Recover the amino acids of this structure.
């Protein structure tokens, strides 16, 4: 009989990770909500529990992950790195669990569309990265359904949709077939030329937006109403808009000093390296636009995997404000 002392030594596993799965989920929830209260609601725990969990995670890893203020929480550089990797790590863990439970599972293919074109600036590269990390999940972009993502979802033309303003159908049959949940938020920012009179301001006020032309794309009416309500409340102000069909034209108009470009942080991110543009935020606090993920019930497993992968994939401007 072989004695225990004769057995080969187990392989070296290296140092145990200090972060836990719950820490990754917490970082993603805080990044999406922007506040401890919002993260607490998403995670179904108390706000004090969120604060304690964040402090414990920062102590274990030895780095500050979020800056706290009266307006909410903002990721530090270390927090940004954690957020960028957390989603895919969680997605890979879910994929590993599925493979262990059903190692012969076939490749899952889903068709995805975004309601807002701004996501297409970063989504293809995120999907390519996801495909490399999770080879059993193939995601195709169905951009032809961008104008009517909810209709395409209800008809079964697509499996998953990323939504900003469009509600799901109220009919009972559609509600039974479709599922939606909060996903993340991006921030609407304001871009001006460095020679613009507002460039020296630390932040912008509502009066600034009333007094200068707002440079926008051909925004859908529902999204424009959401912006106006979020900034000005119920009373619609008199605003001057300059509308351009292309982001490059919006940026060029802002660079020429024609007004204030209003666009997603995702879009602004690619135009700031020249040093002739400045990003501004509202003095009242970040202007966040919520995103939801909606999917057909039969695609729920793939959608759950997408949720964790996408939560940390969107580019941010937290460290690049002007």
């Amino acid at each position: 009989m072989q004695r225990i002392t004769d057995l080969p030594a187990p392989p070296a596993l290296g140092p145990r990770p200090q972060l836990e799965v719950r820490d990754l989920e917490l970082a993603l929830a805080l990044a999406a909500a922007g506040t401890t209260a919002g993260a607490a609601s998403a995670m179904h725990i108390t706000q004090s529990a969120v604060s304690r969990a964040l402090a414990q995670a920062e102590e274990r890893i030895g780095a500050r992950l979020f800056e706290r203020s009266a307006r909410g929480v903002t990721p530090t550089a270390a927090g940004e790195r954690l957020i960028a990797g957390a989603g895919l790590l969680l997605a890979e863990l879910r994929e590993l669990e599925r493979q262990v439970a059903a190692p012969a599972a076939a490749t899952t293919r889903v068709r995805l569309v975004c309601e807002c074109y701004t996501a297409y600036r970063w989504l293809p590269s995120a999907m390519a990265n996801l495909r490399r990390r999770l080879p059993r999940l193939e995601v195709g972009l169905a951009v032809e359904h961008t104008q009517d993502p909810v209709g395409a979802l209800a008809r079964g033309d697509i499996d998953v949709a990323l939504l900003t303003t469009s509600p799901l159908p109220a009919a009972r049959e559609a509600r039974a077939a479709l599922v939606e949940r909060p996903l993340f938020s991006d921030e609407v920012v304001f871009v001006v030329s460095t020679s613009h009179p507002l460039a020296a301001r630390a932040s912008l006020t509502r009066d600034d937006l009333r007094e200068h032309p707002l440079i926008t794309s051909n925004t859908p009416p529902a999204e424009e109403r959401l912006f106006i309500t979020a900034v000005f409340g119920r009373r619609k102000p008199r605003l001057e808009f300059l509308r351009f069909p292309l982001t490059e034209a919006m940026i060029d108009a802002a660079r020429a000093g024609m007004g204030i470009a209003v666009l997603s942080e995702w879009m602004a991110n690619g135009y700031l390296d020249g040093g002739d543009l400045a990003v501004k935020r509202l003095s009242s606090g970040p202007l966040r636009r919520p995103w939801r993920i909606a999917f057909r019930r039969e695609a729920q497993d793939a959608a759950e995997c997408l949720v964790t992968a996408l939560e940390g994939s969107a580019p941010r401007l937290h460290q690049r404000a002007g």
